[in-house]
Amino acid sequence: MIVILFRLLILIALVLLVYTIYQYYRNPERKMQIAKAKEDFYIVDEPTNSKKNIQFVYKNCLFEGEKYLGTTEDSFEVVNISVFARDPGELGGIRRDDLYFIEKELLIRYPYAKIEWKHPINKLLLTIIE
Q: I need a labelling partner for 97 at 20 to 30 A (CA). Which of 1, 58, 78, 130 fits?
């Protein structure tokens, strides 16, 4: 009886170990850190949840976007996204073309949205326009 119970406990431990490894590799925060280290673009978003912010990384800089719901002609959609950098010190090396790339990627996911850049990114865009 004790041998069977011990085998059952070992089986449960193995299943728990496999599940933990699986969850580790699926973790979006881990994937975001890998993309940040590689200076790639990676986005973490729940399109069906308009209350959850968008997080994305691009060129070693972590951004966050607040989604705001509004009306369009047919339905309620995300109509405004306010984007800011979590750590403005990481913005070194970000150029105007990079911001356009980010806007394009956000507009692919939210076609009715107006992208609003928060400080200090909006200062960069204002100096470029002037």
A: 78
What is the spatial distance between Cα 4 and Cα 108, in angstroms, rounded to a whole number? 55
As a three-state string, the secondary structure of the chain is: CHHHHHHHHHHHHHHHHHHHHHHHHHCHHHHHHHHHHHCCCEEECCCCCCCCCEEEEECCEEEEEEEEEEECCCCEEEEEEEEEECCHHHHCCCCHHHHHHHHHHHHHHCCCCEEEECCCHHHHHHHHHC
Q: What is the pLDDT of residue 126?
A: 66
Tell me which amino acid residue 94 is. I
Task: Provide the pLDDT for residue 109.
Answer: 92
State the amino acid at position 45 in one-letter form: D
Sequence-distant (6+) residues with CB within 8 A of 64 are 53, 54, 55, 83, 84, 85, 86
Number of other CB atoms surrounding residue 11 within 10 Å? 10
User: For residue 66, which of 45, 87, 94, 48 has the smallest C-alpha distance?
Assistant: 45
